[in-house]
Amino acid sequence: MPYSDFVQHRLFMKNDLRTGWCKTALLWGRGLQSLCAGHSDRLHDCRARNTLEAIMWHGCIGEGGQSDALWAVKNFRNLTKEQRQLVIKFVDSI
User: Fold this and answer.
1) d(C-alpha 89, C-alpha 51), whole Å
2) Percentage of the chain modeled with pLDDT above 70
3) Long-range contacts of 58-67 (CB under 8 A, 24+ apart)
4) 28-57: b or e for each residue (b if 16 or more CB lie within 10 Å)?
């Protein structure tokens, strides 16, 4: 299972050369990234240093509007600390 919604999301980034759209990356293999590539950078531009930062970056409001994934970040924030840790552990294991 690729663990993706295969959706194009608006990024609302300043000086975005990709027209402001980015396809959701497949999450499988993310757990091996640190071992195989020597880093755990996340997002399309590697600005997140880990899974938690990648999730939280999805809640940012840019110049053109809010992230299409803001609802997911709000749901993540409403989880208990233990539940959030389990989500991160799962993403880092696939």
Assistant:
1) 9
2) 74
3) 61/12, 62/11, 62/12, 62/13, 62/14, 63/12, 63/14, 64/10, 64/12, 64/20, 65/10, 65/12, 66/12, 67/9, 67/10, 67/11, 67/12
4) eebbeeeeeeeebebeeeeebeebbebbeb
CB atoms near residue 80 (< 10 Å):
8
Between residues 30 and 90, the one the model is more confident about: 90
Query: What CA–CA distance (Å, rounded) separates 51 from 92?
Result: 7
User: Residues 51-80: pLDDT tens digits?
Assistant: 898 888 777 665 556 666 778 889 999 999
Structure tokens at 77: 């924030």
